[in-house]
UniProtKB/TrEMBL annotation:
Classification lineage: Bacteria, Bacillati, Bacillota, Bacilli, Bacillales
Protein name (record): YheO-like PAS domain protein
Domain named Transcriptional regulator DauR-like HTH: residues: 159-219
Domain YheO-like: from-to ranges: 8-119
Amino acid sequence: MNDNRQFLEKFFPIASFIAAIIGPKCEVVVHDISDPERSIIFIENGHISGRKVGDASTDLVLKLLKAEAYREEQFIANYKASGKLGQSFRSSTFFIKNDEHELVGLMCLNIDISHMEVAAEWIQHVLQGGSLLPPSSIEPPQEDKQTKEYLQGNADDLLQHMITSVLSKIKIPADRLSSQEKIELVRELNEQGVFLLKGGVSQVAISLSISEPTVYRYLQKLK
């Protein structure tokens, strides 16, 4: 067992403590960033997202690692996430750093607010005093419309989700894109942290109808 793992285990009781306070709708996860494909080393209330120990990081975790956002911040709080079953979460991430101020892990809280959103719509409907508009027509705040994290377990599913999310922005088949357009897609995928996962180069090559050496060549050009 390495030193980082022993250091991170100190946060397991804290994760259990937080989950016990907030309740069964709060999932608390401890990630070991040294292995993005199996980063979850502790989880409370994993039934909420369907994840377990040994599952992968999320798209947001990889993006944070790539952007090194943790260097200037101690945590990020109250952003929107979604689950693979369509749940809505209000999430927060604490950056766990060692004595040398190096990032070694993350503690993530994911509160399932799906039922809260339904209740909030009903309350707004009542407060409107008999409005003919159904509750589902009430617009949420603009900041809540964008999902910033997708909670899944399998590393292959994570990789496919990230690639699909980027490629869904283009309107023509990948095999009809110019070299420059493909380079830009590789740049965006790289910024998202796709290539931190094993198999990232291979899956991107297949998705863009190019060879793996071409992906490496594009990455070299982007440095």
